[in-house]
Specification:
The complex is a heterodimer of chains A (316) and B (256). With 316 residues, chain A is an all-alpha fold. In chain A, 76% of the residues lie in helices and 3% in strands. In chain A, helix 4 runs parallel beside helix 6 and helix 12 crosses helix 13. In chain B, 31% of the residues lie in helices and 29% in strands. The chains are: A mainly alpha (316), B alpha/beta (256). At the A-B interface, helix 9 and helix 10 of A face helix 2 and strand 6 of B.
């Protein structure tokens, strides 16, 4: 297990350095190191994509853990679209203030994401437990509603292109400011996931047994939902809507290293960073000089994977 | 010494009251069986004893400690529950499962250490499944899985171990095996288990609690509890009680 972690960290470092030399402008390594393109454009971009990958993957792990549902992820639960609505309102209304250390866009994104996830969670409660089916149905229904609200905001604001392109997910405007904005969310969120991994492990045995093992199930659920929502909202506020990372990364990692949350959290965070950096590299070079929104790249990979998950679940 | 004291216990779900004022006392080292018809409140009683459901009135004390005054974690160090149905978690081994029993002993920034592994291995040894400790749960037979689940509860080092129908889905060979393990385990702790099979309960338990509609019909030695009259009262079934010719345990025979 340790060795696997080292390999993953090593590949993370190698890939992130390699990606600094990839971009729409081709420069030789010697030129690149001296160029402001590397330090002012590519480095913050690589860092930001890695952090967003960490946050989305970790939220996915948390939500899957407390809901005991491999299909739970911030996108499907509507957290992302809720955050999108919040952020769009803040952008369209041109609000700009700072509240408790949060600037208006992430704050709006967070509040709306929280409203969204609580709505979906409550709607999906059939009797006293959520099932994969009711959760997805509730998520789809509420997300559809949020998309409509979003469309309305876009049309009324008259900023169609800027908001829409932002919603598709992109790191094209990444700067150090964004990196430092999301860094605390990523670090705190990851630490919470790591130190609550015992509780998530106990929850593998079902809520009732977790309870008899001394886990305060309700409290853990609230902590996880709030932490996951915060991280997702932070990610959405700097990169727009990027789906499927929170779904496919933990799922894939679980298939390889098993369901122990302590390693699952760490490996998912690292793999999320890796996947996001690579997806962003594809986004900025595949149709160069035109840049693709990274959200589109992720969905092109993620949607087929999601279908595959549904099929294997039915089979197994 | 009283290991488990229950007095005037009333509890249920929402508005519905299931247990209507139950009182009994169990001594250290006893293996007590709870029997009764479906829906009589056996499982509810176990859920109340393990603190899963809140009690409406009455008191439960485990080794002199009032359950109400203990935190979730403290209860988990006193009482362990083996539920009736547990889905085998995919991808984890027997040892992983048993280690989860150490959860109530871990502090916020702790993870399992060598002590916890040693205790888990001891628990695995107690139920006799050392040779499959590294097997995946999904590869186990029903009897092996049930023993792994019991080892998980043992790793909690509980004073009181509760089991909900631990043998009802096993073949007779494993039924005997599990009951023999429980009979051996009772010496350092107290065991309370629900049963459907009256003859098995009679043979292995020191005392039986016979329940009907949330109340106790009879509580005592198996031969005192399993009488024609009591069985009729609790199950509405005509039966005759004989003695097992070899072991001398009370044995029920159904009449047409």
């Amino acid at each position: 297990m340790k060795r696997k972690a080292y390999y993953l960290i090593l590949s993370l470092i190698v890939v992130s350095i390699a990606l600094l030399f990839v971009g729409s402008v081709w420069l030789s390594p010697g030129e690149t190191v001296k160029s402001p393109i590397l330090w002012q454009i590519r480095l913050p971009r690589v860092l930001l994509s890695a952090l967003v990958g960490v946050m989305l993957a970790t939220s996915g792990v948390m939500l899957q853990g407390i809901l005991k549902n491999p299909l739970a992820d911030p996108y499907i639960l509507g957290v992302s679209s809720g955050a999108g609505v919040g952020a769009a309102i803040a952008i369209a209304a041109n609000y700009s203030f700072v509240f408790l250390g949060m600037s208006s866009v992430p704050l709006f994104a967070f509040v709306f994401a929280l409203i969204m996830v609580l709505t979906v969670y409550n709607l999906s409660k059939a009797a006293d437990r959520t099932t994969p089916e009711t959760l997805i149905l509730a998520g789809v229904a509420v997300s559809a509603f949020a998309s409509a609200v979003l469309a309305l905001i876009i049309i009324m604001s008259g900023q169609l292109q800027s908001i829409y392109f932002w919603l598709l997910g992109s790191f094209s405007a990444a700067g150090y400011r964004d990196v430092f904005t999301v860094l605390p969310y990523a670090v705190v969120g990851l630490l919470i996931a790591y130190f609550y991994s015992k509780e998530l492990n106990a929850l593998l045995l079902g809520e009732e047994i977790a309870y008899t093992l001394g886990v305060e199930v309700e409290r853990i659920r609230v902590i996880m939902i709030v932490a996951a929502t915060l991280m997702t909202a932070a990610a959405v506020s700097v990169s727009g809507l990027i789906g499927f990372v929170g779904l496919i990364v933990p799922h894939f990692v679980r298939m390889i290293i098993g369901p122990n949350y302590r390693s699952l959290v760490v490996f998912s965070a690292l793999s999320g960073a890796l996947l996001m950096m690579i997806a962003d590299a594809v986004a900025r070079t595949a149709l160069s000089p035109v840049e693709l929104p990274v959200g589109i790249v992720m969905s092109l990979i993620g949607a087929p994977f999601f279908i595959w998950v549904l099929r294997t679940r039915r089979g197994g | 010494m009283t290991a488990l004291g229950v007095s005037g216990l009333v509890c249920g779900y929402g508005e519905k009251t299931i247990l209507q004022g139950i009182s009994f006392e169990i001594k250290l080292g006893e293996f007590v069986g709870i029997v009764g018809a479906n829906g009589c409140g056996k499982t509810t009683l176990l859920r109340a004893l393990s603190g899963i459901i809140k009690i409406k009135s009455g008191e439960i004390s485990v080794y002199g400690k009032n359950l109400k005054e203990l935190s979730r974690r403290d209860i988990a160090r006193e009482v362990a529950l083996v539920p009736q149905l547990m889905e085998p978690v995919e991808g984890i081994t027997v040892l992983d499962l048993v280690l989860l029993g150490r959860t109530p002993y871990l502090e916020r920034f702790d993870f399992v250490n060598q002590d916890d592994v040693d205790i888990a291995k001891w628990a695995i040894g107690e139920v006799g499944i050392e040779e499959i400790a590294d097997k995946k749960l999904s590869e186990l037979s029903g009897g092996e899985f049930q023993r792994a689940v019991i080892a998980r509860a043992l790793a909690q080092e509980p004073h009181l171990m509760l089991l909900d129908e631990p043998i009802s889905h096993l073949d007779i060979r494993y039924q005997m095996k599990i009951l023999k393990i429980l009979r051996k385990l009772r010496y350092q702790r107290t065991i309370v288990s629900t049963f459907h099979d009256l003859n098995m309960a009679s043979r292995f338990c020191q005392r039986l609690i016979l329940m009907k509609k949330g109340e106790i019909v009879a509580f005592g030695r198996p031969d005192e509890v399993l009488t024609k009259e009591n069985i009729w009262k609790a199950y509405r079934v005509k039966a005759e009680v004989r003695k097992n010719p070899k072991t001398k345990h009370a044995r029920m025979v159904l009449l047409p």
